[in-house]
Design brief:
single chain, alpha+beta, Bacterial polysaccharide co-polymerase-like, 2 domains, five-stranded antiparallel beta sheet, 13 helices, 62% helix, 9% strand
Length: 426
């Protein structure tokens, strides 16, 4: 049976009307011919003799309401705040660097390699980058607040009654909250290549900005001096402890050597052994002479002569002396001069080693003390904080425009997400 002509006429007279929320997703949706025909039949409006509702009689679109609520109203509120309410904030800027000064030494003997005079008195300045990071960390810590608070009421600078309610700090908040507020209004960053620290302080009056910046620089300089003094004292105390330790060891060896001399009765066993050896050699020479003379007299049959008897008695006396000397030199282990000489050599070697260590530690201590006195850290301020002529913050034009851009992007993103959700429901 053919299709009714009336149906085609109705479709031509009333074109298909899609809901507004499906327009954007339909741009990205492909439809088959059968579905397109089915939708045409499905969306044919029923004509009941009344005129269709005009565009002016409809409710405002949901997107327009969302744009007004999420973009226009917040932008107007921000514009009013930054134009009429926000308080002026003044920035005081200072620049400084942490420098280390030390004596530039030449060779180990203190002479210049180029042949000139000693360079130990020439000052060598270098950047102390690690100490610069210590200073910036100190500026953003609670320690500097404690130190500044002893001489300056810094909280009153940020809790002024003439400042607007959003910018000023409320005195009822905790110290942790104030540290966050402090880090928002006081910044210190380092130029990595040069090691220069840039300090910026933002308050509600020019005088407060300069006063607070000066206080921060003073406390940072005190911190650097403390670090320099502490490092110097630590190194000096360490070397001094080594000197005292080696000196005590050297004194102990001297006491042990003195006790040995008193116990053995020998001032120097080496000298005693040398003298005993010389004496023993002389006695052996005399004994050899007496034996020679006695041999000659025996060959001459003069054994009964008084001279022979005297020579024989002298030889026996020499033999007794020689035996006694040998006993003193190499006798029993606990009584021999050799044992005393060995013990003395050990004690004297300990004394010599302790003496060398003490001299070396004393020399190192003197060198470290001289270097510590020459080497120091200091804060070099080359841009002092000055009174600002005009308020840099708040940025009354650029900040509302940036907020408007951010709100518009957020609204567009939410609109796309909402349209995608509605498209998946169909």
């Amino acid at each position: 049976m053919p299709k009714p002509v009336i149906e085609d006429a109705i479709v031509e007279e009333y074109p298909r009307v899609r809901p507004a929320r499906q327009i954007l997703p339909a741009l990205f949706r492909r439809r088959s011919p059968q579905r397109r025909e089915r939708e045409q039949i499905e969306y044919i409006p029923v004509h009941d003799g009344q005129e269709p509702e005009t565009q002016s009689g409809r409710k405002p679109p949901l997107r327009l309401l969302g744009f007004l609520l999420l973009v226009i109203l917040p932008f107007l509120a921000c514009s009013v705040y930054y134009a009429f309410i926000a308080s002026d904030q003044y920035v005081a800027e200072a620049r400084f660097a942490v420098r280390a000064v030390s004596g530039a030494d030449g060779n180990s003997d203190g002479s210049d390699p180029s042949g000139g005079a000693g360079a130990s008195g020439v000052l060598n300045m270098r950047s102390a980058s690690q100490d610069a990071y210590v200073v910036t960390s100190f500026i953003h810590s609670t320690e500097i607040l404690k130190r500044i608070g002893a001489n300056l009421d810094y909280k009153s600078m940020f809790a002024r009654g003439d400042a607007d309610f959003l910018s000023r700090f409320r005195a009822s908040e905790s110290d942790e909250e104030f540290l966050k507020y402090w880090n928002d209004h006081v910044s210190a960053y380092i130029d990595v290549s040069s090691g220069i620290i840039t300090l910026k302080v933002r308050t509600f009056t020019p005088d407060d900005s300069v006063k607070l910046a000066d206080a921060i620089i003073q406390e940072s300089e005190k911190l650097i001096n403390e670090l320099s003094t502490r490092a110097r004292n630590d190194i000096v105390q360490s070397m001094k402890a080594d000197v005292e330790k080696s000196g005590k060891a050297y004194g102990d060896t001297l006491i042990a050597l003195n006790q040995f001399q008193h116990a053995s009765g020998l001032l120097s066993p080496q000298t005693q052994a040398k003298d005993s050896g010389t004496l023993l050699t002389g006695l052996l020479a005399q004994k050899l002479e007496f034996e020679t003379r006695l041999f000659v007299m025996r060959q001459s049959n003069a054994e009964s002569s008084p001279t022979f008897q005297q020579l024989n008695l002298a030889k026996e006396s020499l033999d007794a002396q020689i035996d006694k000397m040998k006993t003193e030199l190499t006798g029993p282990e606990n009584e021999s001069l050799a044992k005393s000489l060995l013990e003395y050599s050990r004690l004297d070697t300990d004394r010599l080693i302790a003496e060398k260590l003490y001299e070396s530690s004393q020399k190192n201590y003197d060198a470290v003390l001289a270097e510590a006195l020459r080497k120091t850290l200091y804060l070099a301020v080359f841009v002092n904080p000055t009174l600002p002529d005009e308020a840099i913050f708040p940025r009354r034009v650029s900040t509302p425009l940036i907020i408007l851009l951010a709100l518009t992007v957020a609204w567009a993103t939410l609109s796309l997400i909402w349209a995608s959700v509605q498209d998946h429901r169909i």
